Structure formats: structure tokens, C-alpha cells
Amino acid sequence: MKKKILSVVLAAVCVLSLAACGSKADSKESKKDTIVMATNAEFPPYEYYEGDKVVGIDAEFAAAIAEKLGMELKIEDMAFDSIIPAVQSGKADFGAAGMTVTDERKSQVDFSDSYYTGRQVIIVKEDNTEITGPDDLTGKKIGVQLGTTGDIYASGDYGDENIERFNKGFEAVQSLGQGKIDAVVIDDQPAKTFVEENEGLKILDTEYVEEDYALCFKKDSDLVDQVNDAIAALKADGTFDKIVEKYIGTETAE
């Protein structure tokens, strides 16, 4: 009888040991070594292509964050309005594309701490004297990139019927240069790049909206706190400021 009891106990111990080993193995196997970022690489200087590689402020900052987390960064390029659905579905771990924190987006995803202050500005043709600020956009045909805050704000302020939506920011700028629309509302840094690359355009001195950029995550993602810690560390040690300086000069990152 004692031998039978001992056999049962030993068998149970073996089963528990195997289960524990299996659990450790599973845990080790499930640990992620790659983090996927969804972006729209048509938004210089935050993300854009050099050859076949996505570079820019967001791309380089995200790589530094991934390194802090002990992971490698993988970038998935897609349409801007596909980023939040990709994050919600788990296709991507987070989204970064000069993305502004808004109440509507906060209902769909969680955001990291803000890492930069951006501004929406207005681009017009250089010889345009009618449009000198946001108040002059009423009744005008305004170009925006689909799904961006420029789209959201301009639609609300000037009416959906006055908005021309484009999949890419530079397409809106090209349309402006061709005289098909009266103005473009877009983030200030891409605006500078587009105006430099397209003669006959200018950015109005009066900005339209100021906004905070952050990374977006699936609701209740465990990554948010880890990424916030990494953001704080990279801003404290000057890494983020160096990245910003590399792409847009000595402007202070806010």
C-alpha cells in the first residue's frame, strides 16, 4: 500500500515538473523579440523613404524605443487611415505617423505620453492675396490628407462640401500647384518640405491649430507603460532632441 501511495506521489511530482518546464518553455517562446510599427511613410520629416528604407523622426525614435525594450523594430507602411484599424486588430503593436491625440481617437486606441508638439498650417499659392489666415478659408476649396487632423478640423470648420481629400499629402500639394484647389491644410514640418520641393507655394504665417503627437496602441495594451518609460528616458538623455535636430535642425522638441 505504501509503495502504491509513493508511486502516485512520484507520478504527480513528475507531472507537475513537466508542466512547470512546459510553462517556462512556452513563456520563453511567447516573449516577443520584434515590435511592429504601423505608419504612413509619406510624411517627411517624420516618416518617408530613402531608397527602400523608411526613415525620419518617428522611424528613428521608434527604433530607439524598441532597443530600450530589448526588441527589434519592424515598420509596416500603409494608408494613414488604416493605421488605427491595424493597431486595433493586432496587425501592428503601435502606430506612429505624426499622429495627433484627439478625443475621437482616444475612444478607439490608447496613446503614449506626447513626444512632440505639432502645428497645422495653411499652404497657398505664392501669388494668392485673398487667403491670409484661417478666417479666409470659408467657402474655399481646401485640400487635406484623408483621415488626418487637417481633414477633421477643416471639415468641422469649413464644411465637408469644401474639402478635397487625398490619400497622400503631396497629392494635395500637387493639386494646389495645378490650381485645382485653393489651399492645403497639413502639419507644419511636412508643409515645409513640400513647399521647398514645389515652386510657387508658400506657408501662411498664421498657424491653424496646435496639437500633441503620440504613439497609439490597442486598448489596454501592456506596452503603453513600457513605452512611456522609454520615451521619458530617451528625452531625458537627449536622444530624442538629437533625432529631431538630425531631421529638422536645432528646433527644440516639445
Can you give a write-up of this model?
- The chain is of the alpha/beta class and 254 residues long.
- The chain folds into two domains: 32-115 and 214-248, 3-Layer(aba) Sandwich (D-Maltodextrin-Binding Protein, domain 2); 119-210, D-Maltodextrin-Binding Protein, domain 2 (3-Layer(aba) Sandwich).
- 41% of the residues lie in helices and 22% in strands.
- It contains nine helices and 13 strands.
- Strands 7, 8, 9, 10, 11 and 12 form a six-stranded mixed β-sheet that branches.
- The longest helix has 29 residues, at 2-30.
- 36% of the residues are buried.
- Mean pLDDT is 88; it is low at 1-6 and 8-30.
Which SSEs are present, and which pair or pack?
Layout: H1 2-30, E1 34-39, E2 48-50, E3 53-55, H2 57-68, E4 72-77, H3 83-89, E5 94-95, H4 103-106, E6 110-111, E7 116-125, E8 142-145, H5 149-158, E9 163-166, H6 169-177, E10 183-187, H7 188-197, E11 201-203, E12 209-213, E13 216-217, H8 223-236, H9 239-248
Parallel strand pairs: 1-4, 1-5, 8-9, 8-10
Antiparallel strand pairs: 2-3, 5-13, 6-13, 7-10, 7-11, 7-12
**Helix and strand composition category:** alpha/beta
Rounded to the nearest angstrom, the radius of gyration is 24 Å
Question: What's the end-to-end separation, in Å?
Answer: 75 Å
Q: Which spans have pLDDT < 50 for at least 5 consecutive residues?
A: 1-6, 8-30
Order of SSEs: HEEEHEHEHEEEHEHEHEEEHH
| Count of distinct strands | 13
- How would a crystallographer describe the biggest sheet? 6 strands, mixed
**Amount of helix:** 40-55%
Task: Classify the fold: give the CATH topology of the largest domain.
Answer: D-Maltodextrin-Binding Protein, domain 2
Principal-axes shape call: globular
The appropriate CATH architecture of the largest domain is 3-Layer(aba) Sandwich
**Beta content:** 15-25%
- The number of helical runs is 9
